[in-house]
Amino acid sequence: xxxxxxxxxTSKTTKTAKIVKPAKAPVVTAKAVAKPVxxxxxxxxxxxxxxxxxxxxxxxIDVGFGNTLFIRGEGGGxxxxxxxxxxxxxxxxxxxxxxxxxxPVAFKFLLNDxxxxxxxxxxxxxxxxVSLVPMF
Length: 136
Hints:
Blueprint: E1 54-60, E2 69-74, E3 84-85, E4 87-90, E5 93-99, E6 105-111, E7 115-116, E8 122-124, E9 129-132
Parallel strand pairs: 1-9
Antiparallel strand pairs: 1-5, 2-3, 2-6, 4-5, 6-7, 6-8
């Protein structure tokens, strides 16, 4: 009589696994390549022009040795009650830098802060450089 064959606990019957081959990668041809999308240009941001810091007034006049030219007015830190001494830039040139104010500067020149120049008041736009010839 034949002895029955005992199966060992490790030798269980298993199904064989199906071997799956990896799929081939698709071939990309030149026609299939998408064209890159052109980027829109960045918007141009314009910075505002810098605001002028001073209104510069120059008087072309020789006031004589020992005399000083003054300026009075409104705007740019000026007052009609008290004059501000101008700086002697040359024998016949006096200048001053007035801080920028909210509007135009109206002014007049004075010799030694006593004698007013003739004519109407002068006016300068904000941040302008003006050169004038006052008459006394």
